[in-house]
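Field reference: "sequence" (input) and "structure" (output). Example, F-box domain-containing protein:
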Amino acid sequence: METGHEELCMLLPHLTRLACIDLQGYTSSVALLNAVNKHPSVSAMIVDSLYGLHHLPKPLSSLDLSKVVVECGSISHPGLETSYARGLKVYQLVIRQPESLKEEFGNSTFQGLHEISLAMNRHPILLGWLPRLASAHPQLENVIFVDMSNSQMQFTSDTIPFILPFIEKSSQRGLDTTFNITRLVISRTQCGCLSNSGWHVTELIMNVQSSLLVILPIVASCFPCLRTLGFWIYHKRRYNVDELVAVLASFRSLRVLKPARLFKQLRSPDEQLHRPWKPLRHIDKIDRVRRLGARAEARLYWYMSLISKGLPSLEAVYIEEEGYGDEKSCSHGDWYLQGWLSVRGARDFAGTLELGGISG
């Protein structure tokens, strides 16, 4: 029996109000599975993937899997159909070759399905199967498109019709070659916006070469239900922070912001008059590159407070910032800051950024 499973099996009958067991990061066993199936109040045992069941005897067709929920499953996994026949549920289904899906895939059944993640390669995909699959799975909330090829050809209106207005408007402004969408999420959500398909774009991550002040207003007008916005900046334009906040404020549904390489581009008149921030951590004077990163962190927090003050709906920010010992030549070592910050108020954040660096 797996280490710890015997004690858990003995403990389960005494946990009369237990509703769920989370085994993510661990594997299951027949004894634990049987104990869970017999428990009257436990409705789910969650495992990371089918690997969490690899210690169970084969074939799985001999087992009752009706309480097992796989956090992330793949249709390419051998024996998956047999597992579903035994009641196995999957929360997120990962499809690594979505270009191979035919319309018949829409007739498939996956119990407990909430999300589908499509790992897009260089081949075009068709979504003719989605309406039928969505109709048969009322719990399906999100379809995630991830560009694995870093190719601008993936996210086109022919491939993903939900982004047609954005493609058209950006093309009219001559911006169609200045960005690259890397992640897109569509959701069945009620956000007060009309949609013929019932789906809305709720997350967009993109690489940006054009000005944020030009491309983001188009994004906001085309995707009014956007809850998560991320952008990697691939230019050295500078931005007045008030102008950027005014643009970000047009995202009425925004909850999560994921900027990368943004803060060293921001400027404010107050910064020119005096430096209104204090270092948040002490770095040994010998480590010059990390000292630069620590200074950048203090500046980043100050600018983040200005941004959050203008975005009352914002709940969290994922920071990715980087710099060099010598910014002009991008040399003499580099530093980076990354991590989540929870927004608790205009100038109050929970969370700690990771600071790393290598001296050159």
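The mean pLDDT is 86.
Residues 1-69 form one domain.
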